[in-house]
Amino acid sequence: MRQDPKDQKDRLGRRQFFRALGGGTVAAAVGVSATPMTATDAQAYDPGQDETKGRYRLTDHVKAFYRTNGYETLKNSTNDAGKK
Amino acid sequence: MARMKFLCDADRCIECNACVTACKNEHEVPWGINRRRVVTLNDGKPGERSVSMACMHCTDAPCAAVCPVNCFYTTADAVVLHSKDICIGCGYCFYACPFGAPQYPRVGNFGSRGKMDKCTYCSGGPEADFSVAEYEKYGSNRLAEGKLPLCAEMCSTKALLAGDGEMIAEIYKQRVVKRGYGSGAWGWKTAYRETVAI
Is A49 helix (H, G, I), strand (E, B) or coil? Predict the structure, then answer.
């Protein structure tokens, strides 16, 4: 059965429509890929210098800990630890 | 800069669990969480050994490497800490940690375990020192007080050492030089006979 030439014209129009749509999608994809990446690398949590600063101090309390733990074996170094 | 380290002298540890109790009490750690625990190998057999384990504050911490939200950070004292405000409780750090240090307040699946909790080396967290928020989330901040972790300070046999890595390595080295190590240690043959060697 032959179709009306007018219907054929409509069908071609529809095909053109989808072709144009596909072309647009490709163009959009190319556009996205051509955009420079703006995402940055993952960064470890940084609470700031104040919270990451060293808190260890060689106080008398800490010296006593070293001295008692090195009892009878750290005799020579006990005084050195106190001087550090 | 001193690097904070733990070292457990397995020849001295008697599995009294005082370090575990001291830690829980000092930081008011919730039920179900043990920041420190004592692991015993060959329990009940000649030559059994106990080692007190907690977060070892790794230099290249695997927990920090796998954390999807990057909540871990390392202080200038080489202590590995984390922010409970950022933690999502996914549990990845638990699987990554070779010491089983990360703990969770609830049993559950992904995202339902609650915020991760672990040993802070008694140095609090990202909140201001000695603040109420810091104590509630992370426990006391003994390092800022000029003290060392309570688990080590409480150890009755001086098995658990804490402090400057170089200093405690020197203490341990001199112990080994004086007494020997393993089956060569003083009193070993009396305790375990000559047939048991480690």
Answer: helix
ipTM of the complex: 0.88
Chain A contact for B76 (CB, 8 A cutoff)? yes
Cβ <8 Å between A66 and B4: no
**pTM strictly above 0.80:** no
Return d(Cα B180, Cα B70) in angstroms, integer: 43
Contacts of A72 in chain B (CB under 8 A): 178
In this structure, what token pair is assigned to residue A36? 């420079």
Q: How far is CA B170 from the centre of its chain?
A: 20
Comparing CB atoms, the residue among B4, B73, B167 nearest residue A46 is B73
Strand B160-164 versus strand B80-82 pairing type? unpaired
Whether B174 and A65 lie within 8 Å, measured CB to CB: no
CATH number of B4-191: 3.30.70.20
Q: What are phi and psi of B139, to 5 degrees?
A: 95, -165
Residue B73: which of A48, A56, A42 has the closest Cα? Answer: A48
Q: What is the pLDDT of residue A72?
A: 62
Give DSSP secondary structure letters for B49-108: EEEEE-----TT-HHHHH-TT--EEE-TT--EEE-TTT-----HHHHH-TT---B-SS--
